[in-house]
Amino acid sequence: MLLWGAPGTGKSSAVQALAESEGWPCEVVIASIREPSDFAGLPVVIDGGVHFAPPTWATNLANAGHGLLFLDEISTAPPAVQAALLRVVLERVVGDLRLPDDVAVVAAANPPDQAADGWDLSAPLANRFCHLQWTVDAASIAEGLAAGFPSPKLPTLPAEWRGQSGRARAEVAAFLSIRSNLVSVPPTDRATAGRAWPSPRSWEMAAELLGAARAADAGNAVIAQLVSGCVGEGVGIEFLSWLQELDLPDPETVLGDPASFVLPERGDRAYAVLTSIAGAVAGNSTPERWAAGWRIMGTAGETAPDVAAMAARILARCRPENAAAPPEAAAFLPLLRDAGLV
C-alpha cells in the first residue's frame, strides 16, 4: 500500500499508530538516506562464496515472524534505490533473506513537487503498490488535537474470505475477456508512470482487495478506492461500472441450490457467473461443493459448452482428495484430458 499526501498530514504517525494498536513490530526505513545495498543486501564473502547480508531492520522482522515494514518518503528515493526496492516490495526478499508472509509493506510519499529532492516513482515500482490518496479532514484534526487521536483499527477478515477472492478473480477475468485492451496499459509519460496503472499484476492485486473488502463488508466507497488504487482511476471506474450492471447472483447461493441455476444469456455475464462459481469452489473445495459445481457446469454446458468448459477446467484443478467424478464431468472429459487435468 502506498499513501500519497502532502507533508505534515500525519501519514507516518497513522501507520506507526496502526502497528502499535495491532501489536505488530514496525520497522521504519527512510528511503532517501539508504543505499541500494540496504535493500539488495551487502555482499559478504563466506567460505569462498558471496552472500548478500540483509540489514538489521530485515532480520528484526524475520525473527519476529510478522510485522510492518514502513518505507517512508519513498518518493525521495533515487532511481538506484528504487530499483533495489523492486524485490523487497513484491517478493519480500532482502538480500538473501526472505521476509515472512505476515510482514506487510506500507509506503508513504509526498508528490514530487512537494518532496525534498523528490523523484517520480519508476513505473515498475509504482505497479507493485495499491495507491491511496491521503486526505485531511479538518474536523477530525481539530477533534484529535483537543481530545487525542484515536488508534486506527483494522477490520477482521472471516476465515472463508478466500471464497470472495475467487469470485472477484472471476469477475476481473470476465471483464478483461471483453476489454482485452485494458489488460496492460503501461504509462507513456512521467506524470502517470509513478501512479496506478493496469497490468496483469495490478489486476490480480485489485481482485484480491475486492474479495477482501467484500468479506469485511467494507462498502462501495472503499472498494472503489482500492480497485482504482491498483489499476488507475479511469480503468477502475469502468470496471466497477461494468460490474454493477452485471447484477450477478451470489455464488454461495447458487452452490446451495444448484437446481435453481439459470445461465444468463449475455456472454460476459455467463462467463462471469460460471467462473465465479468455480472460483468459490476452489476457495473452499469440499466434495459436496465440488459436486454442486459440476451440476451447475452440466446445466450450463447444455446451452453454452464453450463458456462452461473454461470454468470446468478450474473445477478440475481443485478436486478434493478421493472425490469421485460426478456424471456431469463426462461431457468435459476430452477437454480436460487435452489439458492434462485427468
What this model shows, in words?
The structure is a single chain. With 342 residues, this protein is an alpha/beta fold. It has two domains: 2-147, Rossmann fold, CATH 3.40.50; 162-338, no CATH class. The protein is built from 16 helices and nine strands. The strands form three sheets. The protein has a five-stranded parallel β-sheet, with helices on both faces. Helix 9 packs antiparallel against helix 10 and helix 14 packs antiparallel against helix 15 (305-317). It starts with a strand and ends with a helix.
> Tally the helices: what do you get?
16
| Total of domains | 2
Round the Cα radius of gyration to an integer and report it. Answer: 23 Å
Q: Would you report the number of β strands?
A: 9
Biggest sheet features: 5 strands, parallel
- What value does the average pLDDT take? 87
Shape: globular
Strand order of the largest sheet: 2-5-8-1-9
What structural category arises from helix and sheet content? Answer: alpha/beta
